[in-house]
Write a structure and sequence with these properties.
- By secondary structure, this protein is α/β, with parallel strands linked by helices.
- The longest helix has 14 residues, at 92-105.
- Strands 1-6-4-3-7-12-9-13 form an 8-stranded mixed beta sheet.
- The protein contains 11 helices and 14 strands.
- The protein starts with 12 loop residues before the first helix and ends in a 21-residue tail after the last helix.
- Helix content is 23%, strand content 14%.
- The protein has helices at 13-19, 92-105, 123-130, 169-172, 193-197, 222-226, 228-231, 251-257, 259-272, 283-290, 334-339, and strands at residues 34-36, 43-44, 81-87, 112-118, 120-121, 135-140, 179-183, 187-189, 206-208, 210-211, 241-242, 246-250, 295-296, 325-327.
Length: 360
């Protein structure tokens, strides 16, 4: 597995394309595990039929991996790496590319189990046709569970209920799944996901790359900081910004500590407060509960902000240092910019994982 080492600047894209070539792996394919939790609340999305993805190649475990023929790959198998991603029509192309990137760079792709969170039907069948051997399960997230808790945000996409599904992973996933990697839909992984999986959380519930140089105060309003009822929540902590698009979560600790309800209480406080305490969508409640209590992960695992800001979506450069994950957080998404023939230079690093469209 080749690593993407230190580089910076827009003109490094061509060099990076060479580094990101897939590794060759061989081993007998594993039987795919697929499941779908049906619900009477599910609504069909007619626009799903407008999507067509090429079938991905089969990805097999390298020699040092456990043989899939000797393992019973149920969701509770302790040797699995668990990855959770949301699926919706608007970001479906990004989600498929993210899955493709994880498989392509994993030494043991047959040992990765995906948990897809959806609020509409038809998406599981699409995943199955694109990745016939993928181990995955689809979970329904009811939008009504959070709809009345969501406040307006600077960008409408941040107000979508599925953005909040990550708060409910501990409820949705089987209790035997005690750790999961959560990934946003607008990223690609260019390193072995098992390295991220092996993160030592120690006594923390979540791990994520932290950015302590960022101005943490801007994530909350002046009303919040001027009101001790709210601002004292950070007493005894040294809070730092972290991006919730890449997290390693100890679901066992999460369940025992009731963190879902803690996040909901802050969303309720925002709704009941005489003035707003934050402006962004699902991030601030996470910061209120976890900032200053996060297990640090190397920055290479979230080179975020490649989608620009939440308004203009302007082009961005990479942060200095090595790269294991490229994240187009912000309003600019690589598939939209590529289709518009106005891509940013770094969007070319996302393109090799795009499976959208018919095969030639």
């Amino acid at each position: 597995m080749q690593r993407l080492m230190r580089f910076s600047g827009f003109f490094s894209a061509a060099m990076v394309m060479i580094v990101l070539s897939p590794s060759i792996q061989s081993s007998p394919p594993a039987e795919a595990i697929r499941s779908f939790h049906a619900s009477s609340h599910l609504k069909s999305s007619h626009s799903v039929s407008n999507f067509s993805f090429r079938r991905a190649p089969a990805f097999h475990n390298a020699g040092e991996c456990r043989s899939p023929k000797l393992e019973k790959y149920t969701v509770c198998n302790p040797s699995l790496v668990h990855v959770a991603i949301t699926l919706d029509v608007e970001y479906l192309r990004g989600s498929i590319a993210a899955v493709h990137s994880v498989l392509q760079h994993s030494r043991c792709p047959e040992s990765v189990f995906f948990h897809f969170l959806v609020s509409e039907i038809g998406l599981g069948a699409l995943v199955r046709s694109t990745f016939p051997e993928l181990k995955f399960k689809v979970y329904y997230f009811d939008p009504e569970r959070v709809r009345n808790l969501i406040s307006s945000s600077v960008r409408q996409a941040l107000e979508q209920p599925l953005n909040y599904a990550r708060n409910y992973l501990a409820d949705l996933l089987e209790t035997c799944v005690t750790r999961v990697i959560y990934l946003d839909s607008d990223l690609v992984v260019v390193d072995d996901i098992s390295k991220l999986w092996s993160t030592k959380l120690r006594q923390k519930t979540i791990g994520a790359p932290e950015y302590c140089h960022a101005n943490f105060t801007k994530y909350f309003t002046n009303f919040f900081w001027s009101n001790p009822r709210y601002s004292t929540v950070f007493a005894g902590r040294t809070p730092c910004y972290f991006n919730t698009g890449v997290m390693v979560i100890d679901l066992g600790k999460w369940r025992r500590s009731g963190f879902t309800r803690r996040i909901e209480r802050w969303m309720e406080a925002q709704k009941s407060s005489p003035s707003r305490i934050y402006e962004l969508g699902s991030l601030p409640p996470f910061l209120l509960v976890f900032a200053g209590q996060v297990a640090p992960i190397e920055h290479r695992w979230n080179q975020h902000g490649l989608g620009g800001d939440n308004v203009r979506g302007s082009c961005r450069d990479l942060h200095p240092g090595p790269v294991s994950l490229l994240h187009w957080s912000g309003s600019g998404k690589p598939w939209l910019r590529l289709d518009s023939k106005q891509p940013c230079p770094l969007d070319s690093l996302w393109a090799p994982y795009d499976l959208y469209g018919h095969s030639a």
